[in-house]
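Just curious: can you write a single protein's sequence together with how it folds?
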Amino acid sequence: MQVKKVITYVAVAFVVFYLFTRPAQAAEAVNGVFDGIVNGANQLAVFFTNVLA
């Protein structure tokens, strides 16, 4: 259980460090993730629309 805690703390520290040192690139990364989620949801909607039509 300790290793999982340490890995979690290291990951959070890395994210905070990245946000403070490169905020523009961090914002682009977040936008890319959200764009991917939206694109995936749209593709699922198209799939189910075609299956049910």
The mean pLDDT is 93. The chain has two helices and no strands. The helical segments are 2-21, 23-52.
